[in-house]
Write a structure and sequence with these properties.
- 2 copies of one chain form a homodimer.
- By secondary structure, the first copy, chain A, is of the alpha+beta class.
- Chain A has one domain: Nuclear Transport Factor 2, Chain: A (Roll), CATH 3.10.450.50.
- Helices cover about 20% and strands about 50% of the residues of chain A.
- The first copy, chain A, is built from 2 helices and 6 strands.
- A 6-stranded mixed sheet of chain A has the order 2-1-6-5-4-3, covered by helices on one side.
- In chain A, a hairpin with a 6-residue loop joins strand 3 and strand 4.
- The longest helix of chain A is centred in the first third of the chain and has 18 residues.
- At the A-B interface, strand 3, strand 4, strand 5 and strand 6 of A face strand 3, strand 4, strand 5 and strand 6 of B.
Chain lengths: ~120, ~120
């Protein structure tokens, strides 16, 4: 039995940002070869290039704080659209930056992986 | 032949916000009975309740300005994930509000409709 899509979205989001903030390499478990990441203006496909992108971002420390988390079923096979808005603080910066991130999660056996991932900072 | 997903995303986004700003009732053409809208904390399903929500928002005039528009294929049947960040100005307000909106567009014959729609204002 699949968990409710909202519960999956919440568990995914907690795990995703905890892992991002603790050790970005650990995110490799969440992507597959067909996964897509748009990170600001960079468009990347496949787990290995996605992890390379995420682990070479120009900061050492980052803390994400989620402000809103919304989820909807994205298809009839258990896919889930997740949209997050939040703030992040990098290294010794005192001013958080606002961001938004949309994911599509697809089921894979008993678990889920990230098929779509779009990240943007919000300015102004 | 289907147009490139980026072209579809751009044409959709232009049409969506032009219609929203000119006459929200016209958005009915973009939704179906299975369509989902999360508008801030309201979760709504089906074209008729979606249009009721959008046409009863507490402002008369609104102007959207898109800042970023990203798109990815969302499945192998021509679906498209679109994520927009932008600003909007309502009625006589002088200060724009930032927002983010994620759509999943699904093909329907020669055209597309909105299956998923998640809208959030960004504060702070």
């Amino acid at each position: 039995v699949m968990a409710d899509f909202r519960t999956v979205a919440e568990q995914f989001t907690t795990f995703y940002y905890n892992t991002f903030d603790a050790d970005r390499k650990g995110l490799a478990a969440l992507y597959r070869d067909g996964s897509m990441l748009t990170f600001e203006t960079a468009a990347i496909r496949g787990v290995s290039d996605i992890i390379k992108q995420l682990t070479t971002l120009p900061f050492e420390k980052v803390v994400h704080k989620v402000n809103t988390l919304d989820a909807q079923p994205s298809n009839e096979q258990g896919g889930i659209l997740v949209m997050v808005t939040g703030a992040l603080l990098v290294d010794e910066e005192q001013r958080p930056m606002n961001y938004t991130q949309a994911f599509q999660l697809l089921p894979d056996g008993q678990s889920y992986y990230v098929y779509n991932d779009v990240f943007r900072l919000i300015y102004g």
